[in-house]
Amino acid sequence: MALFPDIMPRPEPNMDDAAFWENCAARRLAFQACAACGVFRHPPSPLCPACHAPETRWVDAPGTAEIYSFTVVHYPSHPAVREHLPYVVAVLRFDGIEGVKFVSNVTGVSAEKLRIGMKVRLWWDDIGEGMHLPRFRPAQ
Ligand SMILES: [Zn+2]
C-alpha cells in the first residue's frame, strides 16, 4: 500500500528527468553525474553546471542516506495528505554522491526521535502503474 492515496499527484517526467524516473520505476535510485568532470547534479539537467559538457552517466546511490535537514508537516497542503498528518519531509545526503541534496519522506519514526545526521535506509513505495518512489526509514 502506498504511503499516500491515489489522489496524490504523480511524477510528471520531462526530457531532463525522464531517465531518473525510469530508474525509479525499476527501483533504482541513481543520480546524474557529468561524464566529463564527474560533478553530480540533481534534479537532472542537460548541461553540467561546472564544465558545460552534455554527456552524463548515472551513478547508483547507496542504500542508506543521512538526514541533512527535515521538517514535520502538520498542515494538509493537498487533500491526499489530510489523513496522513503529521508526516516528515527530509533533505538527505548520500556518501559518495557529493553535492546532491535529495528531498524525500522519512517514515516509521516519530517526529520527536528524528535527528539531523540520523542514518536512514531506502525503501520503495509502489504507487501503482509501474512507478516506485524512493522513501526512507531509520536504518536501525
Ligand atoms: Zn562537468
Automatic annotation (TrEMBL):
Source organism superkingdom: Bacteria
Name of the protein this chain belongs to: Thiolase
TM regions (residue ranges): none
UniProt organism field: Minwuia thermotolerans
Pfam families on file: OB_ChsH2_C, zf-ChsH2
Residue intervals of the ChsH2 C-terminal OB-fold domain: 58-125
SUPFAM superfamilies linked: Nucleic acid-binding proteins (SSF50249)
Domain ChsH2 rubredoxin-like zinc ribbon: 21-55
